[in-house]
Amino acid sequence: MKIVDQKFRVPSRRSITSDYLPKLRQHITKRLKNACSSTDFLSLTFDGWTDRRMRAFYAVTMHCIDRMGQLNAHLLTFNSLS
Predict the structure, then answer these.
(1) Helix (H, G, I), strand (E, B), or coil: what is residue 43?
(2) Which residues are bridge partners to 56 per DSSP?
(3) Tens-digit pLDDT profile for residues 32-79
(4) pLDDT at site 2
(5) Dihedral sign, CA of 55, 24, 22, 64?
(6) What's the CA gap between 45 and 66, in Å, rounded?
(7) What is the distance between the alpha carbons of residues 40 and 11, in angstroms, rounded to a whole number?
(8) How much is the pLDDT for 82?
(9) Which of 18, 22, 53, 76 is least buried, going by the fewest C-beta atoms within 10 A?
(10) What's the whole-model pTM score?
(11) Where exactly are the structural domains of the chain?
(12) 13-81: what CATH class?
């Protein structure tokens, strides 16, 4: 990165986990709350599947149509089942 920008500093693992990720989580949570408050109806969906190595996964998504008529989809969680 020094070639691109000599002033750029790669953030440490500690700053990513203690500063950047919590701020990102707050930002995403705020956007999801705004999406929920700007619609009258929403749908939660659950999907589960296995990969070729028989590892199981599931995802929960939220779908809604906002007041402008736009369909919005949000991935709430994606996890493996062990």
Answers:
(1) strand
(2) 50, 81
(3) 998 888 888 899 999 999 999 999 999 999 999 888 888 999 999 999
(4) 67
(5) negative
(6) 17
(7) 41
(8) 81
(9) 53
(10) 0.67
(11) 13-81
(12) alpha beta
